[in-house]
């Protein structure tokens, strides 16, 4: 291997956004290298066994892992795409060189354009003993259960009744694990009611306006105290319940995995609608660092459907800036933008749109 | 605990192999992560925090959070949630911050 690997477009992250970016750019003729720190590309999709929501064009109705396999196949069939798995991007330097660790080697890559598609990481909430073994992020429970076929414990308290909390609860039940309760601090269930009803019909209580006040156990979780919240989100005294559980699963949201963007000196902004600090970028997903694009959850936590379209848009834009497909790129970009608007037409999408407006407007707290 | 029957998924496990956790011989499957094998064997406490000595377990399972660092075949600070299990591996609770040789 040469000392510095040359490529036209380097994509960091092989999730739905990164893989879609790779095939879109490669289809226009650009040579692409994808770095994926995991042993298998696919991102969050590889652990998702439920049928996806979203639009037909974005594979709604297929199960997450099947969509992942499809994207991997598309990249595998394209001679312009190279995928390095078990390889973690470490840094993006001022001269444009990207360093990575793979097979215990320190690698250097010199790309013409970079697309960061690193996804998001799980959020934590504060309560006494929240560091005990037996407390997991929802993604970790999915990885253990759906990738490795191992259940995390016998009886689970799920925190969060958004789609992730509901779906992972249902998947735990499918794997034979008991759910003691799903609690949600907000007064209403955030996820789709079809998922909630399926769980409630199986006898699992979904307690809205409830929170966890503490976890307990010596070396690992043995139980949790939960309580009711009043209209101003304050604990109602005397409402405490003691649940004997050996697992507490947190499904309280994700935040964009933006370390590389910070380090590459992209201008960043805190936008609560997009779930955290995100890079400021234009309509075509190019950040304030010329030639560095973002796509997927790293540019604002959303869904796989929009991550795939964003990936496609970033891939086309990066390839076009290198002179590939200049004749058809504007049409393809317009199509992708129209699909994004369509995907964001629902109530959840309105929040994302507000966030993007806020992000692209130059005012506000920029860091 | 391992799932043996699942309504949607089929788990294609690799060959059964032995490894050592703090000197004790355990079984796992080739190709799975060290964390998966330890979990299946009922091991949830992977180490203790440096200052307060609080127990530490698996949290993110995708190599983000550093809650699962252990000493593997003499090398410290291995993220066992992404490191794959190999036959005969010696997995040990790490004492202190570890030191690179
Ligand atoms: C339980 C659950 C259910 C969901 N259900 C749905 C659904 O029904 N419909 C839907 O549309 N969406 C759903 N989603 C959301 C969807 O999975 C995500 O929005 C989508 O995966 C985001 O894609 P991404 O490519 O941006 O990030 P990810 O899928 O997170 O991929 C990022 C990739 O980058 C890699 N990576 C990160 N850092 C580095 C680095 N430094 N070097 C190399 N590689 C790196 C990671 O290993 C990962 O593979 C669900 C999510 C969860 C957790």
From TrEMBL, chain B:
<protein>
    <submittedName>
        <fullName>(2Fe-2S)-binding protein</fullName>
    </submittedName>
</protein>
<keyword id="KW-0560">Oxidoreductase</keyword>
<dbReference type="Pfam" id="PF13510">
    <property type="entry name" value="Fer2_4"/>
</dbReference>
<dbReference type="InterPro" id="IPR042204">
    <property type="entry name" value="2Fe-2S-bd_N"/>
</dbReference>
<dbReference type="InterPro" id="IPR036010">
    <property type="entry name" value="2Fe-2S_ferredoxin-like_sf"/>
</dbReference>
<dbReference type="InterPro" id="IPR006058">
    <property type="entry name" value="2Fe2S_fd_BS"/>
</dbReference>
